Amino acid sequence: MKISSTAWKESRRLQALALQKKGWKQTQIAEALSVTDGAVSQWFHLVDHRGTRALLARPHTGRVPELTREQKSLIPDLLSHGAEAYGFRGNVWTAARIAKVIELEWSVCYHQSHVARLLKELQWTPQLPIVRATQRDEDAIALWRTEKWIELQKQARLEHKTLVFVDESGFYLLPARVRTYAPRGKTPTLRVFETRDHLSVMSAITPQGWLFTMVRDDSLTSVQSVHFLKHLLTQLDRKLLVIWDGSPIHRGKEVKAYLADGGTKHIHLEPLPPYAPDLNPDEGVWSHLKCVELRNVCCLNLGHLHHELDLAVIRLRRKPYLIQSFFAGAGLNFSKV
C-alpha cells in the first residue's frame, strides 16, 4: 500500500517527540531523522503551545478531483498507443492533445496547464524522439551488445591488441543551439555567417579514455581512413582491433590495398551492425563537442572553427573518465573474464 506524503511526515514528527522523551538532544534527533535543527525546534515549539495534536497530519481540503486515481493511472496506457491512434497528425503528444483525449475518454475538460501538472505527477516529461532507421535489425544489435562485444574484448586481450572505436562527423560554422537564460521577451540572437562550409573530423576512442582526432577541410575518403589508421598505430605503438561502421570510406580500395599490403599484421577491422550508430561510443564524442564544448559558439571562418575545435578536443582529452562514460552510454559493458 502506498503511504501518503502527509502520513510519513506525521510519523517522523511523532518519532522526533518520542526521541526527545528518551533524552535525545535536538541535534541528535535532527541528524537521525535527516532534517534541520530548525525543523525539530519548530516541532517542539508547536507541542509546547498546542500539544501533541499539533504534530498530526491535517487532511487536505479543496475541490474533489474530476478524475479518479484509477482513471489517472490509465492515462499512460492510453497515450502509449500514440497520437495517431486518436486521429492526430504525427506522433506528437502535447498538453492540448492530451486534454482532448481526457475529454474524449471521460468527458472531463482540463486546461492544458493542468494537464502539464498531471503529466509531471505521472512522471511524463517532454522529450526529443530518437530517430531509428526502419532497416535496423534490433535482434542483431542486441546480440552484438551481449555476445559479440564480449568476444571482441576477449580477442583483444588474447592477441594483446588495443580496442579502438572510430567514427566521422562534420563541424559547421552554424553552431549547435542550446537554451540560455535571457531577459523575458528578449530572445538572444546568434550572428552567424550562413554557409555549408565545414570541417570533416575523424576520431577514435579507447576503453582507457584516450581520444585521437584528425581534421580536414575537405570531405574524408578512404585515403584519409588509411592515414588515420597509420596515425593510430604510431600513437598507440601496438596492434589494434578497430571497430567502425560500414561507411564507404571504410571499405574503399585504398583500405583494402593497405590491409593486403601487410596491414592485417597490425590491425584487425571489425564492422558494426548496419544502421546502429548508437552502438558506437564515439558518437558521444560528437555530442559532447557540439552540444557542450561548442554550444552557441559562433565562428567567423573555418580557421576560427578549427582553432575552437582544437581547444575543445584538448579539454575533452583531459577528462578520460568522461570519454569512458560514452561506452556506458552506448550500452557496452566491460567483461571481467
Write the layout of secondary structure elements.
Blueprint lengths: L4 H17 L4 H7 L4 H14 L18 H11 L15 H12 L5 H10 L16 H21 L3 E11 L25 E8 L5 E6 L5 H15 L3 E5 L3 H4 L1 H8 L6 E5 L11 H11 L8 H16 L2 H10 L8
Helix pairs in contact: 2-3, 5-6, 8-10, 11-12
Q: What this model shows, in words?
A:
It is a single chain. This protein is of the alpha/beta class. The chain has three domains: about 5-55; about 70-120, no CATH class; about 140-330, Nucleotidyltransferase, domain 5, CATH 3.30.420. The chain contains 13 helices and five strands. The chain has helices at about 5-20, 25-30, 35-50, 70-80, 95-105, 110-120, 140-160, 220-235, 250, 255-260, 285-295, 300-315, 320-330, and strands at about 160-170, 200-205, 210-215, 240-245, 265-270. It has a five-stranded mixed β-sheet with strand order 3-2-1-4-5, with helices on both faces. A hairpin with a 5-residue loop joins strand 2 (about 200-205) and strand 3 (about 210-215). Helix 5 (about 95-105) crosses helix 6 (about 110-120) and helix 11 (about 285-295) crosses helix 12. The chain is elongated and about 90 Å long. The two termini are about 45 Å apart. The mean pLDDT is about 90.
